[in-house]
Amino acid sequence: MDNKVFLFPLNNSLLFRKVTLPYHIFESRYRRMIKDAIEYQTPIAVVPFSADNNYEGVVCVAGIPHILTTYPDGRMDIYITGSVKCQLTEFDRENPYQVYYYKILDENLFVDPSLEYEIEILRSLLERWAGHFLQDANQRENFSSTLEDPEILVNYCAVFLLDDVEMKKDVMEAESMRKKIQILLTAVGPKEIPLGPFLPTLRF
Known about the structure:
By secondary structure, this protein is α+β, with helices and mostly antiparallel strands. It is about 35% helix and about 30% strand. It is globular and about 65 Å long.
């Protein structure tokens, strides 16, 4: 099914390129969707739920699912690694899940050397997050090694350090690495407040 994705609408949920996220699948139509996606190697696009059920023009990330566990009643634990950033262009059909055509969106993922300081700030924030949430030392070490890829680092920051889904969406939709980093630092990075000409700058 060339240039088509299966749609998985979820409240406050987004997928990012190169980021692996787990999902628990219990509705029968989505259990079928997962099986069809694997059989036909059709990516699944994870998008925030829309009340009007219209997703044309939505920018999202899609990937092929992998099944971790299948339960006796048919429920599944799966994971999806984001692989393609795309824009949904046209509704195709719904039987029983929605299928959309899409076009691939290009990004400028070049990391200008002038961004090295900002990258290190984000790396430090993620390392602090990992130290708190990843109790196993091997997990922390493996996680840290993945942060050598700036795209993974930036996308992990969006997934783990941002609570607001709209801000996550802004990072995912941004077309350049510079813009993504600017959005992240505005939300989670250090702040500087000048206190006046004769007082030090407050940093936190």
